[in-house]
Structure formats: C-alpha cells, structure tokens
Amino acid sequence: MSNTSTGNGKVVVNRAMSLDGFIAAPGHAMDWGAGRQLADFAAPDEFREIAAATGAMLVGRRTAEVGARMEAEKPGSVDYPFSGPVFVLTHRPPEPPGPEVTYLTGDIGEAVATARSAAGGKNLEILGADVAGQCLRRELVDEILVYVLPVLLGDGIRFSPPSLPRIDLEPVSSTRSGAVTILRFRVPK
Hints:
10 strands; 5 helices; alpha/beta; Dihydrofolate Reductase, subunit A; two-stranded antiparallel ribbon
C-alpha cells in the first residue's frame, strides 16, 4: 500500500508521548501536567502544517470520548486546525450518532480505506492506541509521527500494545518545536 505509486496521501499514526513511552496518563488523561496540552509545548506552526496535510482522521472510540470530555471540561483545550471528516472506529456506535463524526464498525482495513478515500488525496491521520495498533499489525501505516514531550508519566497508556510484533522503522526526520522533539518514521512494507 505504498502511497508513492498511487499518488494518495499517507496513513500517518500521530502521537504525543511522554519521554517514558506513554501516550496518556492513567485513566486515559491526555493532559501533560498542570492542565497543559500538547499545544502548550510545541510551536503553533507545527500543528497548522500537519493539519494542512491531513484530509481525514480515523480515531478510536475511547480517544474520541476522552477528547470530547476534555473539550467539555475546558473548551478550546483540544483545538486543532483541522476541518476534514472524522471517522470513529467502534464496536458500539452511539444512538443517536453524533453529528460531527462518522462512526464505522467492522474491519480495520475497510475503515482505513473508507477514511483514506474521504481524505481526498491528503494524509489520513490515525489517533488512538488500539486503532493504531490494529493498523500497524495489518501493515496499513506509512509513517509514524511522534511528539516527545519533556515529561515522565511513570504509568498510563503505552505507545504500543504489548502484543504488537517488532517493526523496524526508518527514521525520516527529527526536529525541535518549542519544548517538543518531533520524530517522524517511515514504516517499511
């Protein structure tokens, strides 16, 4: 599924991660201490550039619920300059479904194909530990983008599930933006 021959955008796992390898604190909390969010660590231009290259998002239900809870508790806390379609992969779509997202059930390959088609040739961003793990297992991911934050959480939701097999990645870039180190890797097929 190489995107270079098809001209389609890439499938990119996008993660913020503590230095000790956690993408969320216990209870799936995605604030990084003292109520700080990822945007409090990185330069705003980083998000605009990545959002501009993103045509759609495929998000796990738990990640979507945590984001909605964070936004309800502190409006503006999950602002991301992205306006494309958002797909939530779940076994239990809510009734009635939310108006701002499309809920998908079933096979991860079909979900990626649906969301990638909606991305209109731009990147499909994958959010959520379980969805990302499923995509990596099925070799559906082209790149991994990691924002390494200057914090040690000690516990929480790991970057990858323990059942994920070894994957040797190809480094693409390493940059610094504010207090964040941004790592980009290619996932060989």
